[in-house]
Amino acid sequence: MFRTSKENFISESSKTLEEIYEMLHSLKSISLQKLQKDKTVLIMVDLINGFIREGALKSSRVEEILPAVLKLQKACIQAGIPILAFADSHTMASPEFESYPPHCLAGTSEEEIAEELKQAGGYQLIRKNSTNGFLEEEFQKWLLSHDKINNFIIVGDCTDICIQQFAVSLKTWFNKENRKTRIIVPMDLVETYDLGVHNGNLVHVMSLYNMIINGVEVVQAVEVG
């Protein structure tokens, strides 16, 4: 049910979007060196061919963040910071294809990590069969066996789907456990796609805002020196 007219909705939303835009631009960067390496993990989400270079859901917007992600990946490897890499991997039986076109099928090149990141290595691969990597049993086991980790740097795609779902799920799980953590999302290392009414710029900004109001620490960037 709409509680306002179309004109009022657009006018009020425009003002709000301007405020959110300015708020995001005022956020600071953080330094990787200031995070304790034994308490920090880098999590790369869906930086795979099927969202970057081939298939129904490829996006040049996502491809553009790869060089900066690679730089952070290498810095984490050098610092001894563990890295997890989620990768979508489905069969044709996936109910997800009722919402999205078939993508990232198991056994195809679409489910493979982007070549640049694969060459750098240093990560533990976790394949996932939904948009939310938090639900994967392998990640749950990793989380419980690494209970000293309290800094989670999350990068990848898509800002409004897999990134947002994972970051908010992770934060709220720690809230339930009464554990203080930093769930860190660098704005320059997450992206989404443009397709029809799915305006990449709009959903990117609104998703960052939604993560902030749910306790996720959105930052301009993670500086590596």
UniProtKB/TrEMBL annotation:
Pfam families: Isochorismatase. GO terms for molecular function: nicotinamidase activity. Residues 40-170 form the Isochorismatase-like domain. InterPro entries: Isochorismatase-like_dom, Isochorismatase-like_sf, NIC1. One of its GO terms (biological process) is pyridine nucleotide salvage. PANTHER family: OS02G0606800 PROTEIN (PTHR47297:SF2), PTHR47297. This is Amidase. The lineage of its organism: Bacteria, Bacillati, Bacillota, Clostridia, Lachnospirales.
